[in-house]
Design goal:
Elements lengths: L3 E2 H8 L5 E2 L26 E2 L1 H18 L1 E7 L4 H12 L5 H10 L25 E8 L4 E2 L19 H4 L1 H16 L2 E4 L2 E7 L23
Parallel strand pairs: 2-4
Antiparallel strand pairs: 1-3, 4-5, 5-6, 5-8, 7-8
Helix pairs in contact: 1-2, 2-6
């Protein structure tokens, strides 16, 4: 079983290409630097196993036809080494100025040592098996990312699926509801603590038995 490049697939099979901005290939994430396994010039590469990739294109087409919205992917397949990097980082007591700044953005009410215990990060991540994506919505008319209430990887109760319109506003609540309905329509299971996180058919949807640990590099744009 191999991974497919969904950003390339979507150019042929989607009404509008799926956008990508892999946050863990940048410094714009909760750690404040690229994670091991992500190349800085590979932010637009979305890798998934075949079934998950095909279903994601179906989600995209549904959103385009129904709402004139599209998907932007902030993470998909995640190398195993990146999960280990994140785990090791979360165990460290030392915090530098970059980490303190990212904490204010991504996990202002907890310490990084709590991320795994509270279920915001998993040591056996579905991301490593290639059937999981982190997605927001984009307005195709303006090419702007829609208001979803909080930023990506905001580790807090405001990211839970149980929030109400009173918590995040009517507009953001509607956008989350549209995303949830579209993803579930094509058999992506949601994660109750992260409104952006969906796995195709959950753990049962894993098309491989062992996690991938393939580095995400620019050369994968050609495959």
């Amino acid at each position: 079983m191999s991974l497919i490049n969904v950003t390339l697939l979507s150019q042929e099979h989607c009404l509008e290409p799926i956008q990508a901005e892999l946050k863990y290939a940048t410094s714009d994430n909760l750690v404040g630097r690229p994670l091991n396994g992500y190349h800085r010039e590979a932010t637009d590469i979305v890798l998934l196993t075949p079934k998950a990739g095909e279903r994601l294109c179906q989600v995209q087409n549904y959103l385009v036809k129904t709402y004139r919205y599209g998907l932007i992917v902030y993470d998909a397949y995640r190398p195993r080494r990146a999960v280990l990097d994140l785990f090791n980082w979360a165990q460290q007591e030392h915090e530098n100025e970059i980490e303190k700044a990212r904490q204010k953005i991504h996990y202002p009410h907890i310490k990084k040592q709590q991320l795994f215990a509270l279920g915001y990060v998993d040591a056996d991540s579905n991301h490593c098996y290639g059937n999981t994506v982190d997605v927001f919505l984009v307005d195709l008319a303006t090419q702007q990312v829609l208001d979803m209430g909080v930023c990506y990887d905001y580790m807090d109760e405001l990211s839970h699926l149980t929030v109400t319109a009173n918590d995040i506003g009517e507009k953001a609540y509607r956008h989350r509801s549209i995303l949830l309905e579209a993803m579930e329509k094509f058999n992506f299971e949601s994660y109750k603590k992260e409104f952006w996180h969906y796995s195709h058919q959950g753990k049962q949807g894993r098309e491989v038995t062992q996690p991938f640990d393939i580095e995400i590099t620019p050369i994968l744009k050609l495959t």
